[in-house]
TrEMBL record:
<feature type="transmembrane region" description="Helical">
    <location>
        <begin position="315"/>
        <end position="335"/>
    </location>
</feature>
<keyword id="KW-1133">Transmembrane helix</keyword>
<dbReference type="InterPro" id="IPR019896">
    <property type="entry name" value="Polysacch_pyruvyl_Trfase_CsaB"/>
</dbReference>
<protein>
    <submittedName>
        <fullName>Polysaccharide pyruvyl transferase</fullName>
    </submittedName>
</protein>
<feature type="region of interest" description="Disordered">
    <location>
        <begin position="1"/>
        <end position="24"/>
    </location>
</feature>
<dbReference type="GO" id="GO:0016740">
    <property type="term" value="F:transferase activity"/>
</dbReference>
<dbReference type="Pfam" id="PF04230">
    <property type="entry name" value="PS_pyruv_trans"/>
</dbReference>
<feature type="domain" description="Polysaccharide pyruvyl transferase">
    <location>
        <begin position="60"/>
        <end position="341"/>
    </location>
</feature>
<keyword id="KW-0812">Transmembrane</keyword>
<keyword id="KW-0472">Membrane</keyword>
<keyword id="KW-0808">Transferase</keyword>
<dbReference type="InterPro" id="IPR007345">
    <property type="entry name" value="Polysacch_pyruvyl_Trfase"/>
</dbReference>
Length: 413
């Protein structure tokens, strides 16, 4: 884990101790309207310190939304919680979220942060998977091993487990995860995989993705409305969120045809990249195949503005999991394009349609799927809003479990 030498960053003093980003109304931070009654949990008599490990500081809007949601949820129960994030860009993480941050590639910085911590949180997101290569899995399991070598308790925080395709990946993940103190997962499919790889020792809870705990009512919509006007958007707008993925380019012509059909039938189309700059390139590839005009968001905006833009959509076609999750939070019906099992699993969870297989998408099949989704848009909107409301308190359960363990001293090294 040694690497680029970037100094540790520390949060600057802020009036908002919950670490909220610009774009949420002051005095009403997201944490203040979470569903859990914080009065049920007495504040600790001493300051707790936690370290968070995940895919942070890489300009991925989905993962940054996860981190923001985790911080808000934890501090809704323990306002004075001291948080240190392992980040690819520690200065930016510290400044934007009112946390401490250290370079995720510096072993000495990570070790120092862990020595001072009461608990190490692994997550959220999909950290324990080998689809993107073995290096990622080895890194995140290595963080867990380091914490346990330092006799620090570890909690897996609302993760989606897998895919784990290599036999050694499954063996190693099972062996390491049996050493943690508590596991919370965002879906039942992850729990099934956990059982398959032989994880038996720690308590396991299925909660929900942290982002589902966000309350959209506290958004300041003005930045999003300004951006909306700058892009010349009005009337019915459909969002499209795509990403680069092996084989995904084969369905770009079909997606471009569907986008053209939407425009000719009176819709406007907005491409929403979630990972910069890779997703911008994918969006441009689809847009170049279109014969009708479409808008592409080219800026890496803060979470509140992204949520505000999402709230203006009437429909979304998406590959990115957290584009779909934010759509659900904002009550926007969607059609999922599953490139990974986690995308299909979430679509089922919130009762939204999905194409069967991204690899098998054709112009005819995608057009039919979009037409059916649009015909049932009102019904799907009602379903996704009901599902999101039901999942919101479950998303906060993870933070509540962590705080209960900390308060009661139930986690031991």
């Amino acid at each position: 884990m040694a690497g680029v030498d970037v100094q540790a960053a520390r949060a600057t003093p802020s009036d908002d101790k919950n670490g909220s980003q610009a774009g949420f109304k002051s005095g009403t931070g997201v944490a203040s309207s979470y569903g859990f009654p914080t009065s049920d949990f007495r504040p600790p008599t001493s300051v707790f310190r936690v370290v968070i490990s995940g895919y942070y500081g890489f300009q991925n809007a989905g993962d940054e939304a996860v981190l923001y949601s985790m911080i808000q949820a934890l501090r809704s129960f323990v306002p004075g919680l001291e948080i240190t994030v392992l980040s690819h860009c520690p200065e930016q993480t510290a400044a934007s979220l009112n946390v401490n941050a250290v370079n995720r590639w510096r072993l000495t910085a990570i070790t120092g942060a862990m020595r001072r911590a009461d608990l190490v949180l692994s997550g959220g997101g999909s950290l324990f998977q080998d689809v993107t290569g073995p290096e990622s899995l080895l890194y995140y399991l290595g963080v867990v091993v380091l914490a346990r070598l330092l006799r620090k308790p570890v909690v897996v925080y609302a993760q989606g487990l897998g895919p784990l395709k290599r036999p050694w990946s499954r063996w190693l993940a099972g062996r390491v995860l049996n050493k943690v103190q508590l596991i919370t997962l965002r879906d039942s499919e992850s729990r099934q995989l956990l059982e398959e790889i032989g994880v038996r020792r720690p308590p396991v809870y299925v909660t929900a993705d942290p982002v589902l705990g966000l309350e959209p009512e506290n958004l300041d919509l003005r930045p999003a409305q300004k951006k909306w006007q700058e892009m010349g958007l009005k009337g019915q707008v459909a969002g499209i969120s795509v990403r680069s993925w092996p084989g995904a380019g084969n369905c770009w012509p079909a997606l471009a045809r569907v986008a053209d059909d939407l425009v000719t039938s009176g819709w406007q189309v907005l491409f929403l990249p979630f990972h910069f700059p890779a997703d911008v390139d994918a969006c441009r590839q689809v847009a170049r195949l279109m014969h009708q005009p479409a808008a592409i968001l080219r800026e890496n905006l803060d979470l509140a503005t992204i949520m505000g833009l999402m709230s203006q959509l009437q429909f979304l076609i998406g590959m990115r999991l957290h584009a779909l999750i934010l759509a659900a939070v904002m009550g926007v019906p969607f059609l999922a394009l599953p490139y990974d099992p986690k995308v299909a699993a979430f679509a089922r969870l919130v009762e939204q349609p999905a194409v069967g297989s991204l690899a098998g998408v054709t112009c005819m099949s995608l057009t039919a799927a979009v037409q059916e989704a649009l015909a049932r848009r009102e019904e799907h909107g009602q379903r996704v809003r009901a599902a999101a409301a039901e999942l919101r308190p479950r998303a906060l359960d993870t933070a509540r479990l962590v705080v209960e363990y900390l308060r009661k001293g139930a986690i031991g090294g």
